[in-house]
Structure formats: structure tokens, C-alpha cells
Design brief:
Blueprint: H1 3-17, H2 22-29, H3 35-40, H4 48-58
Helix pairs in contact: 2-4
């Protein structure tokens, strides 16, 4: 599993733990709703700005997205 897939899996896991749909998380993070599924599948190189938006939307620290 590469880093993009690990990050995507972690985002998906945290999103589900918080009871959020992909659309709701995308709205909270102010990213396009069609972008989030590709992030969760590990298909995107995600910018640090998007990582920051997702962390804020999930109410976590950026480092938490990379904890195993």
C-alpha cells in the first residue's frame, strides 16, 4: 500500500467514525464532492492545503492523518 492509499484509507476511516458522508465531509472541507472519493481511493496526490482542510473538517491534527 502506498502513501496515497494509506492517507485515503485513514480519511475514510475517520470520516466513518464521525458519521459523515463523503458529501458532508467535502462540504465541511470546502472541496468538490467528486474529489473526496478519489482521495479515499488513493488516486490523488493531495496538496498540503487540502490535507489541512480535511483535518480541520474532521476536527483532528494533520499528524493524525498519518498515524498508523
Amino acid at each position: 500500500m502506498n502513501i496515497k492509499q494509506k492517507l485515503g484509507q485513514k480519511i475514510k476511516e475517520l470520516r466513518k467514525l464521525k458519521g459523515l458522508s463523503q458529501e458532508k465531509l467535502a462540504n465541511l472541507a470546502e472541496i468538490d464532492r467528486t474529489y473526496l472519493p478519489t482521495i479515499e481511493k488513493g488516486e490523488r496526490n493531495v496538496s498540503i492545503e487540502v490535507i489541512e482542510k480535511l483535518a480541520k473538517a474532521l476536527d483532528i491534527k494533520i499528524k493524525d492523518l498519518f498515524d498508523e
